[in-house]
Amino acid sequence: xxxxxxxxxxxxxxxxxxxxxxxxxxxxxxxxxxxxxxxxxxxxxxxxxxxxxxxxxxxxxxxxxxxxxxxxxxxxxxxxxxxxxxxxxxxxxxxxxxxxxxxxxxxxxxxxxxxxxxxxxxxxxxxxxxxxxxxxxxxxxxxxxxxxxxxxxxxxxxxxxxxxxxxxxxxxxxxxxxxxxxxxxxxxxxxxxxxxxxxxxxxxxxxxxxxxxxxxxxxxxxxxxxxxxxxxxxxxxxxxxxxxxxxxxxxxxxxxxxxxxxxxxxxxxxxxx
Length: 273
Description:
Blueprint: E1 8-16, H1 22-32, E2 38-44, E3 49-54, H2 59-67, E4 72-81, H3 90-118, H4 121-143, H5 148-178, H6 186-209, H7 219-223, H8 226-244, H9 248-271
Antiparallel strand pairs: 1-3, 1-4, 2-3
Helix pairs in contact: 1-4, 3-4, 3-6, 4-5, 4-8, 4-9, 5-9, 6-8, 8-9
């Protein structure tokens, strides 16, 4: 008598040491897009883990993850019943991406405007970091149903645009280091960065709450994010500007953030390869 057996699915777990914010999650999603063996991706940003559910062994999964230079390491592969696999809702994921895209792009405009008004390079640099996240979320939304070649072209254009802005920012920082400039307005720096910090926490909450049975945000999910660390850095720079009456804390933090933005631009460019 024929005995029906439930089909098996492979679950491969990776530890990704440099995956510390939701925008990097979406970069990984885009990088793995198009691999037909993949059934589902399950992210745990707090622990920096990724579980890939797939039908067959495929070395291309690890190869693509390694190409992003996020420190991806294979942990283990095990077989599970297909009945255990719960599919993701693409409509829910799309709504969440639209929410965080609008929040990030809105704060890019706010921080860029207030950064120029207050003469704070820290705020200007942080605005570009917000823009970088907007690019990633936008690409994730736009890539659905788009040709792979078109997606890669847009990723390259976005990466080069972000890279150009960041390099121009560093040039401006150098000019301000050696020139005579007005002091940045520490009050605007601190106030806007606090608002940006809250915005990033909201984005993390929106993106993570659907993956947890808990209604609240785990504290570790907030403090593992680069974005939140950057916001805190600009707040600290504002406080140091107040205490030291010097422009240099703002310029130092701005330089660091511009370098982070350049690193992000390079990763976006890798999506176009």
